[in-house]
Amino acid sequence: MQIASQQFRERASEALLDPNIRTAFDGLKTGFAAARARSVAALPEFPAMREAARNIRTHTLENLDLYLERYEEAVRAQGGHVHWAEDAEDACRIVRDICRKAGAKIVTKGKSMVSEEIGLNAVLEADGCEVLETDAGEYIVQLAKETPSHIVVPTVHKTVQEISELFYERHRAYGFEERVTEAADLIAQVRAIMREKYFTADVSLTGANFLIAETGSNIIVTNEGNGDLASMLAPVHIVTAGIEKVVPSLNDASALLRMLGRSALGMETTAYTTFMTGPKRAHDLDGPEEYHVVLIDNGRTKMLDGPFREMLRCIRCGACMNHCPVYLSVGGHAYGWVYPGPMGSVLTPMIAGLEEAGDLPNACTLNGRCQQVCPVDIPLPDLLRRLRHERWEAGFVKQTVRWSLGLWAWLATKPRLYRSLTRLGMAVLHKLGGKRGRFRRLPLAGGWTGSRDFPAPQGQTFLDAWSKGAKQP
Amino acid sequence: MSADARTQILTRIRTALRQNGAVPMPPAALDRRMTAPPTAPLPAMEDDRVSRFIAKADANGIAVDHIASLQMLVPALARLLSETGLKADISVAPALADLDWPKDWQINFAAGRREEHLSVTFAAAGIAETGSLVFRSGAGSPATLNFLPDIHVIVLRTGDIAAYPEEVWDRFRAEGQGWPRAMNVIASPSRTADVGGIVVRPAHGPKAVHLFLLGSD
Ligand code: SF4
């Protein structure tokens, strides 16, 4: 996937003008955020479980080399293959070679964020494969040639009507001539199309919510049963996973799964949790003949080496974005890459680079909600603050911003001048604000006044008011 | 190249951890943690596990019935088939092949087929915490039978209901049969909300799950 994070400002401004986006993403507040709150409130043990989840992730990361070695050993003992990839290119090449060896024409895919991170679909398509996302949401955005706008619900931004149009246009190729407009009928088409594909696919690709060192398994969770079917029906199954996905044991995975469902959807569990371990056994009646895992670094060891290690605890639940005022008003596409919201604003600069990530670290009000709802307590606001600093140090902050901040800093060290200038500014704005006391438009502040009025200052400057207040006991 | 990447990655991990004050666990302690994995804090469970299991499964949309013995399964299925108006053309997990199946039923004792109206499988365990069923793939229990049918009929021994998944893992560890290719934990029929946030059943898997609890606790 191409990175367009540098255009965050432009994309965010466009999104703010789009009423559909605002309605769609606003729904996440009443939907997922509220469901999460209910399920957390119903569970007095939640804080203790959250702390345990955090500790499991920290412990695993502090012993990552040992757990990866044990995991690898366990996969091999079950007849599976483990491949190691330094970066995106390396990972895509490994998967492409396995597909070539299998003579793959059709590749069915379960949801995998890391496969989007490394741009896998494009590489396989260029190699002549038909690559099919099987998760209904991922399939819809793939068919529409769009990208997911949320990591758990990729289609938040799409209306039923848009999907109906899309299917009417594209599903005639599969013999669906009628226009259908009901969600159930639309999903029935996806089910029928995929049923065929599961049985004709040469290779299946899935991600891993976790990898288990104890058993050599990868776990996927779904409500649809798509990744599960894909991986058991194609003759070759390839798992792509970041190296940080490993956990020590089945018990650790269970502890983390309890946090995942509740944080993501406010649910105790998804419909399906599948543990896959190696290829088909001698007496098995189904399952793939070959089982491969590609362990991907792509910037993760760099994160391990310093203050961003905590970000590797992330279990990709999406809670931080469901509670982020910036994400909820601009939507997922504004972030310009695979990972949106607060977690994306940290991951994108870490994986794709500070320069590529543009303004993302600034897309944050530092209100702290993301960390509060994060099931593994990642200090997202601190990490974002640090990234802002690094961007400044690296010289990626625009000259105009540097210049105005420099001027402000100079002014702030001259209290008298600062106070008289702010008093003057306030008086002028107060006059201009007139009786309404608000501005519908303000030069240089279009970004503010586009989605809300700017109140004209009333009374005194903060410093004046504060010093007066301070004098009154 | 791949072997090289492995060394490089592991070396970078070790350097990163050493330089940044990570405290590696001593090998013996790590071994202990792997062979006897600790259990994190669990959600409290007030009811007994069987009633909790039934209540949760029911809330998740699984229909729960009781049968006193495996002999009762075939008559129960015959009733289900006539209620749903389905032909007696079904798939049954080979683990249940020895039952007294009617001669005039078409039964596939093998992996699932592309079109599968109804399948009958045997669960290895139940989890009361979430009302879920655990399946181990194997010669008697093809995983495809859990996902391909429109109606998934499951048999579970009531005595195999555990309170938490951790208990199930402990039981499997103690049984020492190794880990199967697939363990499927199933909590409900298949669903999606990817079209306009409207919940639709089914997505890719079964639209209905029917559970027969076998025997008493
Ligand atoms: S950062 Fe935390 S809240 Fe956000 S996706 Fe990751 S685990 Fe979930």
Q: Could you list some keywords that capture this structure?
A:
heterodimer; A: 473 residues; alpha/beta; Fumarate Reductase Iron-sulfur Protein, Chain B, domain 2; Rossmann fold; 3 domains; six-stranded parallel beta sheet; four-stranded mixed beta sheet; 23 helices; globular; B: 217 residues; 10 strands; binds iron/sulfur cluster
Low-confidence stretches of chain A: none
Q: Would you state the CATH class of the largest domain in chain A?
A: Alpha Beta
Main beta-sheet annotation of chain B:
6 strands, parallel
- Structural class by helix and strand composition of chain A: alpha/beta
Radius of gyration of chain B: 22 Å
The CATH topology of the largest domain in chain A: Rossmann fold
Question: Radius of gyration of chain A from the CA trace?
Answer: 25 Å
Find the count of extended strands of chain A (DSSP E, 2+ residues).
Answer: 12
How would you summarize this macromolecular structure in one to three sentences?
Chain A is an alpha/beta fold.
Please provide a written account of the structure.
- With about 475 residues, chain A is of the alpha/beta class.
- Chain A is about 50% helix and about 10% strand.
- Chain A has helices at about 10-15, 20-40, 45-60, 65-75, 90-100, 115, 120-125, 135-145, 160-170, 185-200, 225-235, 250-265, 300-305, 320, 325-330, 340-350, 355, 370-375, 380-395, 400-410, 415-435, 445-450, 460-470, and strands at about 80-85, 105-110, 130-135, 205, 210, 215-220, 235-240, 245, 270-275, 290-295, 440, 455.
- In chain A, a hairpin with a 4-residue loop joins strand 5 and strand 6 (about 215-220).
- In chain A, helix 2 crosses helix 12.
- The model of chain A has no long low-confidence stretch (mean pLDDT about 90).
- Chain B is α/β, with parallel strands linked by helices.
- Chain B has two domains: about 1-35, no CATH class; about 45-215, NagB/RpiA/CoA transferase-like (Rossmann fold).
- In chain B, the strands form two sheets. Chain B has a six-stranded parallel β-sheet with strand order 1-10-7-4-2-3.
- Chain B is elongated and about 70 Å long.
- Chain B starts with a helix and ends with a strand.
- In chain B, about 45% of the residues are buried.
- At the A-B interface, helix 3, helix 4, strand 1, helix 8 and helix 10 of A face helix 1, helix 2, helix 5 and strand 9 of B.
- Bound molecules: iron/sulfur cluster (SF4).
- Iron/sulfur cluster (SF4) binds next to helix 14 of chain A.
